[in-house]
Amino acid sequence: MSEVNEMPSNERIVDDLVRGVTESCTVGDNAELLTSTSQKPGGPVIDGHPSDEQLNRNETTSDNSSPDADDDKHENPDDDTIDEEALKSRECTLSDDDKQRLTKESEELKAGGNDLFKRGLYSESFQKYTLALRTCPLSSPKTRAILFANRAACKIHLGRTSSAIDDCSKAIELDETYVKAYLRRAKAYEETDKLDEALADFTKVLEFDRSNPDALEASMRLPPVIEERNEKLKAEMLSKLKDLGNCVLKPFGLSTNNFQMVQDPNTGGYSINFKS
């Protein structure tokens, strides 16, 4: 499944700024000569040439490489790859009868996966659902949505929570009204401490089912938890910004203690006043 590049959080940006400025200050105060010998991943490199040890290691690795590596990958029971481009190409060659037959086969595989799941055989159930997804035609989106959501449940039990979120998202993409997929993704989000996303999914569930007990309970429980977390993050960020300011002001004989932040009660914004 494709990965989405996320924008760095404010906390991460502040961390990077503090680290960069602190390192600059340290180098300025304690300059040291760099050694001519560097260490690179994979083994030592001296004066730009690999050592005999590294050469021997490379030869051993080359001799022991398996020509069947690709075959092993396809036999991996944890492989959840669904090649939708290949499924699209196959779809062009299928007749209506073929599509009905493959849909029926995928339904049978789903039933087998359901039985294995009820027996607590989550790994085997996961494999059944994966095979069903590779069998089911793209022209049966409702069936595919159920398969993705069911496979997500297996992944949660197997500790693959982040991947379960991806499967739930795919199920919702195929069926935007699929309440069970929203609920499953919300709980997975909460397990990975993505509380804002979890609350958004629980809120979405209430749009379809206002009496859903899980969504109702979460809608009351999560807001204060999120607010408490945000206040804690804000305090940590202000502390890091103070450290950054002290590093910048140090050469001038100043510190952040020379400045006072005053909050405007009307706007909630802050002004900074200098105090000697």
UniProtKB/TrEMBL annotation:
<feature type="compositionally biased region" description="Polar residues">
    <location>
        <begin position="57"/>
        <end position="67"/>
    </location>
</feature>
<feature type="repeat" description="TPR">
    <location>
        <begin position="179"/>
        <end position="212"/>
    </location>
</feature>
<dbReference type="InterPro" id="IPR011990">
    <property type="entry name" value="TPR-like_helical_dom_sf"/>
</dbReference>
<feature type="compositionally biased region" description="Basic and acidic residues">
    <location>
        <begin position="85"/>
        <end position="106"/>
    </location>
</feature>
<dbReference type="Pfam" id="PF13181">
    <property type="entry name" value="TPR_8"/>
</dbReference>
<dbReference type="InterPro" id="IPR019734">
    <property type="entry name" value="TPR_rpt"/>
</dbReference>
<keyword id="KW-0802">TPR repeat</keyword>
<protein>
    <submittedName>
        <fullName>Tetratricopeptide repeat</fullName>
    </submittedName>
</protein>
<feature type="region of interest" description="Disordered">
    <location>
        <begin position="28"/>
        <end position="106"/>
    </location>
</feature>
<feature type="compositionally biased region" description="Polar residues">
    <location>
        <begin position="28"/>
        <end position="40"/>
    </location>
</feature>
<dbReference type="InterPro" id="IPR052769">
    <property type="entry name" value="TPR_domain_protein"/>
</dbReference>
